Amino acid sequence: MIAVTPAIAISDSEIEISFIRAGGPGGQNVNKVSTAAQLRFDVRGSPSLREPVKLRLERIAGARLTKDGVIVITANRFRTQDANRKDAIDRLVEMIREAAHQPKFRVATRPTKAAKRRRVESKVKRGSLKRTRSGKPGAED
Q1: How many domains does the chain have?
Q2: DSSP state of 105
Q3: pTM higher than 0.70, yes or no?
Q4: Which of 86, 1, 84, 99 lies closest to 43, judged by CA?
Q5: Residue-range definition of the domain harbouring residue 38
Q6: Is 34 inside any structural domain?
């Protein structure tokens, strides 16, 4: 079990990790050893996540989400399989944590009449102050 939040935990069976060859530094070792981890997580088929979290997670995943609703994360930052596996799982957990955070519902409000009046008065006052600074004769009407 992978603990995401106190309320959410994902079973190891929901995550599929395979190893592929990675580019980058490593010399000839890169050509013969598969160290990059490719993690696949089926968002739509996950029993661990509630529906609103799934929807937010799909939105957060963006281009990493396939048409079938599977998130694919490729981790090749490190030279070892273990480090790349941990990196891929950490990135998935971070995405799920972000999706689990429910944004606050904001009620749109309008400024009051008095607030509009105060705003206009302050703009007029500021404009007159700038007019007096110009130094032109006759600007102080």
Answers
A1: 1
A2: P
A3: no
A4: 99
A5: 2-100
A6: yes
